[in-house]
Write a structure and sequence with these properties.
310 residues; N-(1-d-carboxylethyl)-l-norvaline Dehydrogenase, domain 2; 2 domains; three-stranded mixed β-sheet; alpha/beta; Rossmann fold
Length: 310
């Protein structure tokens, strides 16, 4: 069991804000919070959080600091700011999705300053972040994991120790890559089924009863693909591109050239270029089924009814 007396949280975005609120409510410890968005800080303060003026201020007042930031670029910047604080935290926990090689390099820098470092990226939806039912994949020392788990349990229902530092990022990155590839596969299946004369929603409902069932089918497929609903602020295409690029970087480091993952990444880039950068990434189906065509001069919208040729 941990003996931490105070916590910190930096990064109150779509996932970070509800995660931090759960930490505030359930940990029974003071939680010092910082984000550039003052409104987000205010909402967390309303639930019991303590506003800080900077990431450095968080570090000076917390035993453990959790980070939920857009990428490793911001993680490196914020972490180095905290290492320059007059008092350092005992541990920094990166809950962002970050490049593995840079995560390991940053951890060595943090450890050299006498601070422990753990990677603990999260998976599942913004709704899961609100409910505290995230999957959290943790990479780091077994003792650090044991001490952290009661705190991570405040934010996730499935907290998994994946192995040494960086292992949590590997699992998260490959989990997301699998989802993106599955969404592409579902888009192709839907297109084939619709053009053969079958209702898309009925098709996925029946597929969910067989061996082709998956979380992506029931979530991304039924809630987004068949309904043609690709809202903004729900894991946009540009986020998917970032995570897919991390998976390709891992493959390259291992001397492997993936075909399906590369095709999926390329299609996500085409989706971004077609004007759906901020839309929920299953918007890729519109390119796969031919409604939106990417020409040499840029994206063009196909004639009305192409997708519903069946």
């Amino acid at each position: 069991m941990h003996d931490y007396k105070s916590l910190g949280f930096v990064g109150l975005g779509v996932m970070g804000e509800p995660m931090c609120k759960n930490l505030v409510r359930k940990s029974a410890l003071p939680v010092h919070v910082f984000d550039m968005n003052n409104d987000a800080v205010g909402r967390v303060v309303e639930t019991g959080g303590i506003a800080a003026k900077s990431a450095r201020s968080v570090a000076e007042n917390a035993d453990v600091v959790f980070l939920s930031l857009p990428s490793i670029d911001q993680v490196e910047t914020v972490t180095r700011q905290m290492l320059g604080a007059s008092a350092k935290p005992r541990m920094i926990v990166d809950m962002s999705t970050s490049d593995v090689a840079r995560t390991r390099a940053l951890a060595r820098e943090v450890n050299a300053a006498g601070v422990a470092y753990v990677d603990a990226p999260v998976a599942r939806t913004a709704e899961a972040a609100q409910k505290g039912t995230l999957m959290i994949s943790v990479g780091g020392d077994e003792r650090d994991f044991t001490a952290l788990k009661p705190l991570l349990d405040c934010m996730g229902s499935d907290v998994l120790h994946c192995g040494p530092l960086g292992s949590g990022q590997i699992l998260k990155i490959l989990n997301n890559m699998m989802v993106f590839m599955t969404v592409n596969a579902l888009s192709e299946v839907l297109t084939i089924g619709r053009r053969a004369g079958m209702d898309g929603e009925k098709l996925l409902q029946l597929l969910s009863q067989g061996s082709g069932d998956s979380f992506a089918l029931r979530n991304h497929g039924m809630k987004s693909l068949v309904k043609d609903q690709f809202p903004e602020k729900v894991f946009p295409t540009v986020y998917a591109i970032k995570d897919a690029s991390l998976a390709l970087a891992l493959a390259k480091e291992g001397g492997f050239q993936p075909r399906i993952a590369q095709y999926t990444y390329d299609m996500l880039c085409h989706t971004r270029d077609a004007g759906y950068a901020q839309n929920y990434h299953p918007a890729v189906i519109q390119l796969i089924d031919g409604r939106v065509k990417v020409a040499a001069t840029g994206p063009t919208v196909a004639a009305s009814g192409t997708a519903a040729a069946a």
